[in-house]
C-alpha cells in the first residue's frame, strides 16, 4: 500500500514551463510537495464557481506592497469574497492611497541612526515619520464626518473609509493602490478582529475622548461574519485560524441555535457585488489562513 504512489520521474526543466507545469512536475516531495498540495486545493476546490472564499491577513503585508501586487488582483479576479485583516495592514495600506512613499531598506540598519534621521522601519522597509502623521491626520479627519457618528461594524467603517481613500487616489491621479479603496469599489467587506490594536483604532479612541460618537460594534462583526458562513452552509465549521474573528464566524450553528424556528440570520450587504464575484458555496476548506467554502 505504501508503494502505490505515483513514481518519481520528473521531466527536465527547460525554461518553457508554465507555473502550473513547474508545480505539478517538479514539486514532488518535502515542503515543495506540500506547496503542490496547497496549490491543488486552492485551484481545484477553493476557486470553483460554487465557492465563497474568506481571506485572513496577518503580519506586515501591505507595507511590502503585497496589497497592490497580489491582494487587489485576487479581489478583481473574484477569488476573494470577504476579508478579515489586522488593523495594521489596513492602516499601512492607506499610505499608498494617500500617495505617501515607502522604500526598500536594509534589515541590518542601525536603529539609533534611523531614529535620529526620523526614519521609521518595518524590518527592511523604511519611510519618513511624516507618513504616519499624515495618515493619522487623514483618518481623524474622515472619521469625524457626520456619517461616521454612530456605532457600526468594522466592515462598514472600512467601506466608508475606503470610499474616501478612493477619492484621494482619484485626486492624486492614482488607481488600484489601496486594498481598502478597491474593496470599496468591488463591495468586498473587510473586518478587523481587534480594531483597537492599530493606529486606526487608536485614532478613533482618541476622538471618542473629544465627543465622537463613532464606535466599533464588535457584536455586529461576529454576527455578520457568522451570517456569511451560515448563508453558504449552515453546518460548516473551521478550525486553526490566525484571525480571531474567523473562529466565531466558522461556528454559525451556535448562532443559528438562537434563531427562532431555525431561521437563518440576515446576511449583511455592504455594497452589491459584481456578478463575477458572486460565489454560492457548499462546504469549507482551509489552507493556512485562506478559508474557502467548497464542496
Keyphrases for this structure?
295 residues; 3-stranded antiparallel β-sheet; 12 helices; globular; disordered C terminus
Entry summary:
This protein is an alpha/beta fold. Helix content is 44%, strand content 11%.
Query: How many strands, which pairing sense, and closed or not: the largest β-sheet?
Result: 5 strands, mixed
- Strand order across the biggest sheet? 7-2-1-10-9
Low-confidence stretches: 237-242, 253-295
Number of strands: 10
Structural write-up:
The chain has helices spanning 19-26, 30-46, 66-76, 87-97, 111-116, 129-143, 154-172, 179-186, 199-209, 218-232, 246-249, 252-256; strands spanning 52-57, 82-85, 103-104, 119-122, 125-128, 151-152, 190-191, 215-216, 285-287, 290-293. With 295 residues, it is α/β, with parallel strands linked by helices. The chain has a five-stranded mixed beta sheet with strand order 7-2-1-10-9, with helices on both faces. A three-stranded antiparallel beta sheet has the order 3-5-4. β4 (119-122) and β5 form a beta hairpin. α3 packs parallel to α8 (179-186) and α7 (154-172) packs across α8. The model is unreliable at 237-242 and 253-295 (pLDDT under 50).
Amino acid at each position: 500500500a505504501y508503494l502505490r504512489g505515483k513514481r518519481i520521474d520528473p521531466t527536465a526543466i527547460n525554461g518553457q514551463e508554465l507555473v502550473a507545469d513547474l508545480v505539478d512536475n517538479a514539486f514532488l516531495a518535502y515542503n515543495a510537495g506540500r506547496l503542490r498540495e496547497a496549490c491543488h486545493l486552492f485551484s481545484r476546490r477553493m476557486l470553483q464557481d460554487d465557492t465563497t472564499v474568506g481571506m485572513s491577513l496577518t503580519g506586515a503585508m501591505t507595507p511590502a506592497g503585497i496589497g497592490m501586487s497580489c491582494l487587489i488582483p485576487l479581489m478583481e479576479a473574484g477569488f476573494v469574497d470577504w476579508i478579515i485583516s489586522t488593523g495594521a495592514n489596513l492602516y499601512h495600506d492607506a499610505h499608498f492611497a494617500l500617495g505617501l512613499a515607502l522604500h526598500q531598506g536594509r534589515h541590518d540598519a542601525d536603529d539609533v541612526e534611523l531614529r535620529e534621521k526620523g526614519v521609521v522601519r518595518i524590518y527592511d522597509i523604511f519611510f519618513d515619520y511624516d507618513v504616519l502623521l499624515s495618515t493619522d491626520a487623514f483618518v481623524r479627519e474622515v472619521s469625524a464626518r457626520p456619517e461616521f457618528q454612530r456605532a457600526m461594524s468594522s466592515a462598514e467603517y472600512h467601506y466608508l473609509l475606503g470610499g474616501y481613500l478612493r477619492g484621494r487616489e482619484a485626486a492624486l491621479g492614482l488607481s488600484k493602490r489601496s486594498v481598502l479603496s478597491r474593496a470599496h469599489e468591488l463591495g468586498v467587506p473587510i473586518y478587523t478582529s481587534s480594531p483597537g490594536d492599530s493606529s486606526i483604532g487608536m485614532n478613533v479612541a482618541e476622538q471618542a475622548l473629544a465627543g465622537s460618537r463613532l464606535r466599533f460594534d464588535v457584536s455586529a462583526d461576529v454576527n455578520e461574519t457568522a451570517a456569511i458562513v451560515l448563508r453558504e452552509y449552515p453546518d460548516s465549521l473551521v478550525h486553526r485560524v490566525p484571525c480571531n474573528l474567523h473562529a466565531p464566524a466558522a461556528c454559525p450553528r451556535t448562532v443559528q441555535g438562537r434563531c427562532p424556528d431555525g431561521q437563518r440570520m440576515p446576511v449583511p450587504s455592504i455594497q452589491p457585488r459584481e456578478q463575477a464575484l458572486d460565489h454560492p458555496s457548499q462546504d469549507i476548506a482551509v489552507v493556512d489562513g485562506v478559508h474557502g467554502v467548497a464542496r
